[in-house]
Amino acid sequence: MAAADVYIAIVFYLTAALMIAGALGMVFVRNMVRSAVFLVVTLGGVAILYVLLAADFLAVVQLLVYVGAITILVLFAIMMTPRQVDIPSSAPSAQKIASALTAIAVGVLSIGVLVSHRWNLRSTPMDEPTSERIGTLLLTSYALPFEIASVLLTVGMIGAIVIARED
Amino acid sequence: MALAPIGLPHYLVLGTVLFCLGMYGALSRSNAVGVLLSVELMLNGVNVIMVAFARYIDTPQELAGQIFAIFIITVAAAEAAVGLAIVISVYRLRHTIQVDEIDLLKG
């Protein structure tokens, strides 16, 4: 393996460990604020993965939108619903076991299919800057989803204001 | 496989692991905001897989995976906003957001 491959492998495994630790913390911690902070760790790890995958524009968008906006939104919601620590329900073990089995079954099935499939791989992985190409694609081939996403965001914003309004 | 250069299968496994952890959280957490956090984790797992496909798969639609990931981020943001607004509204009315206690529609 070349030196660059070793470096990329080290960064990948460290980031993967960080993300999985953050995800486990988010799922299992009872305190809601700590759970949200663990999710921030995972979202930052996802941004590092985007940089490894040569998705430079998406890495910055991930940090801006997920870590910046959605995290603050979640923390506001936690703040406005006080004293709602995630308490175990009255019948915890059956539900937790069933959901764990479901998640494990879906995971094993998906990993088995994804890893064993013979993918149509490129000769060399794509490694070019993406911002300009994404901009061109969003305005030419994907103009309709782009406009629909704008309408969706406007409707979502108006809906959230109307629903959460105190009257 | 772990000693090979990092390729598509590594990212696929990592994305699937994130998705399954998020699925476990969404199915087992009793706080509604916790469920929404787990759904965000699931969407991020899917995004990782999409961007890995954009990098490694040979396809005439270049960058389709990244465009898909951008739209997933957009929809996730809108859904988080509306979902959290609903949670806040439910808290105002019922003073609880434990999903087991919000059972007015239960038969």
Write a structural description.
- The complex is a heterodimer of chains A (167) and B (107).
- Chain A has 167 residues and is mainly alpha-helical.
- Chain A has six helices and no strands.
- The longest helix of chain A has 26 residues, at 3-28.
- Chain B is mostly helical and 107 residues long.
- Helix content of chain B is 72%, strand content 0%.
* Rg estimate of chain B, integer Å: 18 Å
Oligomer: heterodimer
| Shape label of chain A | globular
Give helix and strand order of chain A, one letter per element, not per position.
Answer: HHHHHH
* Helix fraction of chain A by DSSP (H/I, runs of at least 4): over 70%
**In angstroms, what separates the terminal alpha carbons of chain A?**
64 Å
In helices, the fraction of residues of chain B equals: over 70%
- The whole-angstrom Rg of chain A is 20 Å
> Structural class from helices and strands of chain B?
mainly alpha
Spans of at least 5 consecutive residues with low confidence of chain A: none
Jot down its keywords.
A: 167 residues, globular, B: mainly alpha, 0% strand
Reconstruct the topology from this structure:
The complex is a heterodimer of chains A (167) and B (107).
Chain A: H1 3-28, H2 32-52, H3 56-80, H4 92-116, H5 131-139, H6 143-164
Helix pairs in contact in A: 1-2, 2-3
Chain B: H1 8-28, H2 32-56, H3 64-94
Helix pairs in contact in B: 1-2, 2-3
